């Protein structure tokens, strides 16, 4: 089973634009449903991996990374804080490639 993080065209376009505009290190963090509930290895099933490798992007398996509790900036309507993978939060900027999801009601999008 392959794990679709986001549309390959969207991933590649986003990475191309980022590489054109910055020399910063780029990481991709994801928590795999398939890893948690179907015992698969995200390093073998994530469909974005070829593009991430092509653009020199580190892939962090969120369920295996160090985690920390972080408050929601400005507060959240549902939760005031989240347990998140540290590499996903301790960055200078965040670009979210969320699929068709609505995280506005929680005050944060980590997808």
Report on the architecture of this protein.
- The protein is α+β, with helices and mostly antiparallel strands and 111 residues long.
- Helix content is 31%, strand content 16%.
- It has helices spanning 8-21, 33-38, 42-45, 49-54, 86-89; strands spanning 27-30, 58-61, 67-71, 81-85.
- A two-stranded parallel sheet has the order 1-2.
- It is globular, with a radius of gyration of 14 Å.
- It starts with 7 loop residues before the first helix and ends in a 22-residue tail after the last helix.
Short structural description:
This protein has 111 residues and is an alpha+beta fold.
The averaged pLDDT comes out at 81
Q: Could you give the count of β-strands?
A: 4
Count the helices. How many?
5
Succession of helices and strands: HEHHHEEEH
In terms of DSSP E residues, the strand content is 15-25%
- As for the number of domains, it is 1
Helix content: 25-40%
Lateral strand order in the biggest sheet = 1-2
Helix-strand makeup class: alpha+beta
The profile of the biggest β sheet is: 2 strands, parallel
Radius of gyration: 14 Å
| General shape | globular
Distance between the termini: 20 Å
Oligomer: single chain
Topology:
Blueprint: H1 8-21, E1 27-30, H2 33-38, H3 42-45, H4 49-54, E2 58-61, E3 67-71, E4 81-85, H5 86-89
Parallel strand pairs: 1-2
Antiparallel strand pairs: 3-4
